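Dear colleague,

Thank you for sharing your sequence with our group. We've completed the structure prediction you requested, and as agreed, I am returning the results in plain text so they can be pasted directly into your records. Please verify that the sequence below matches your submission; if there's any discrepancy, let me know and we will rerun it promptly.
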Amino acid sequence: MQAARRGFFVIESVLRLVLRHSRIIVTIGLILGTLGGYYTVQLYRNLRPDLQEMLPNQERSVKDLEEISSRLRSIDNLTVLVFTKDADAGRKFVDDLAVRLSRAPSNIIAGIEYRITQELRFFSRRRALYMELRDLEKIRKYIRDRIDYETNIRNPLNIFSEIELPVPKLDFHALRQEYQSRIEGYTRFPEGYYATPDGTKRAILVNAPGRASDIGMARRLKKTVDDAIVAIDPLSYAPDLRIAFTGGVQNIVEEQEALVQDLKRSMVIVTVIVLLAMLLYFGSAMVTFALLSSVIVATLVTFGIAYFLIGYLNANSAFLGSIVIGNGINFGIILLSRYLERRRTGESVNQALCRGAGLTATSTWTAALAAGLAYGSLMATDFRGFRQFGIIGLIGMVLCWISAFTFLPALVSLLDAKKKRHPLKVVKKADPQPNGFPGFLVRFARPLWILTLAATAVSFVSIALWPAPLDEIMEANLAKLRSRRSLTEGSAYYSRFQDEIFQRYLSPIVILARNRQEARQIAGKLRDASKDANNLIASVQTLDDFIPDNQSKKMAVIREIRRLLPVRVLSELPAQERKLALELIQTPLFPIRRNDLPALILEKFTERNGSIGNLVITEPPIGEEIRKRNNLLRFVHTLREITDSVSPGAPVAGTLPVSADTLASISRDGPKATLVSLLAVVLLVTVLFRHIRTIGSVLFALALGGVWLVALILAFDIRINFLNFIALPLTIGLGVDYGVNVFQRYRQEGPGKMPLAVRQTGGAVALCSFTTIVGYGSLLLAQNLAFVSFGVLAILGAITCVTAALVSVPVYRITKDRKLRDSGKRSDTQGDATQEIKRAG
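Please find the predicted structure tokens below.
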């Protein structure tokens, strides 16, 4: 208690100093806010929405992607989709667009793919060399047997004999199917163009130099393509011709644009609603202006500092502006509520500010530290999506509290200067009989407490009986967390047409071995692993797949087939056999070397330094199976395990390894952050209050809010992802933030005064909760579905915590105090009766 009194007088002394120099304090605050605003703008100019930016720098997928990006000319593309019912017009359009795009500098467009006519011609002319040697030998033997059969059947000695000569047989259909299966991914394109068989949907792949996550590069490439399309006027080719975009470059452009729009919308919504709420609650434009000014200055300074500490924002930390405002305004609300309460008792402005600050400093500082530590717990993780959030959130909570107890009272003192000698109208002392919400708690304390126990019991049972492992609530399909617009009318929507054209995964995993021999070994092991369907390895490709093996032996067999098939014999073969024979004897008989391959093939396997053939390209099947958490993790693990068995540490890069590492990182770091947050908050409350009843009440409210939240997550099957996991440690901070103000006031008022504590602080705490919910609720209107998921979970956490702080724990204390009071009355009655008996005796 002595420590509390000392703290009270220290805060009052500081406030007196602040108020004596209020003009200087406000001026310094405005200068810092202006500087912070400038650097906040610079920070938001460097938004990086790519998932890779949230993973730790040391994560394998990040390092592998960096190495692949530095060694290959391009690892991603923009897909231009062309739709028209006039197939000829569509073909003419893509031809003209490709010509124009080919003139772009290589630092904007690394290459263009839209047809493989030359490549098909190359392989078609040499198809015999791509057949297996054993199959060529089967054909040679069949031709020998067929010639012998034709010779024998025409032999005059056999014509009238009764000997039945067996007809030589060869399963030409099986041979053709085996060969066709290898090239069907290419031969289905009409005339070699990337298009559907009817030509009504066409695609141009515009390869990006470097990484698509470079937003500057992505925008330049997209603008170049847009300008080229406008220049040739699509409607001049066909009135129904329309263009759409998909691919990695379009993804990053759309997500960045959606992020910026969401940020603007969120900030406007939060500012307007919070402004109206403040005006309604305080009934004073001056107080509202001062409060908003205080929290905005603190927020701008926070992001200004973040500019120097971090330098950029990722998808998680980008929307923290509205969250910091929604949370950080709470401290000023509590202070101003006590300030106005003191003013109504007849105190002057400065006196009310000093005493209000002294009475609320401990609870608000505890709340600020609890919220700050909840954010700060995220810094204990390696996941950058969490760490940035934690750094900015911690700084924001501390600065918002400092601003609330320096800049805010100084500004209120200046704005309210005319009222220093004229106190607010003195109000009568509150009616000792509670009414309104406190009266409701008193009247229904027992039923509400029973309801609390029942809800808590149901929550514990539902958690204990949850049938699936907890990691099953993790969201593995990251496509569900993209922009709503992208899913309905953007890149994600149009990716289905890309799949229809190519019928394969266009963002493969690239394995970069140290040499060509290692690439062969890795590919061989991957093909063996692909025989197990559970591994989801649909295809494996290396440069060697385009260079036939055993070429000298194959050419020897083909030469013999040519010798065996003069024109006369060839004309006597059945049509199907004759066609295959012609393909064989017309094959150019010179070996195919690496440099003989078409440029399009060589470019895919060529590194920046000129090395060729060290790449292994593998793809999963198209479909939903690879989007399931366990399937994705197993697929990536298999690729890495096989790669490391041949070439330890060789890069295994692509979007799927990044997704897999994101899921693994959240599973590893999420529980760690939650535990650190819980331990830090418990320690904080214990050290600052050192009063068992207050500590117990605050932690009880926290426990109730947390348990209810987890039960709601399971009940509504809310999937946890890389963003909304943050809501769990933040709920711990909120649980303390709301509870500490009510129970500190109860402690100050004394036992039996819980209704009074709720009456005096409940409105302010409810307003704090409302502003926090508004901050989170603004995200429900976001295009980005990850933001929406965070908003839902955070709102549920805020509701459970404020319910526990304003309803459940107060009714428990009311019930407890009522029992103590009743037992005290019985003791007094028994004592009086005893005295009467003694006197009578």
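Summary note from our side: The chain has a mean pLDDT of 84.

Kind regards,
the structure core
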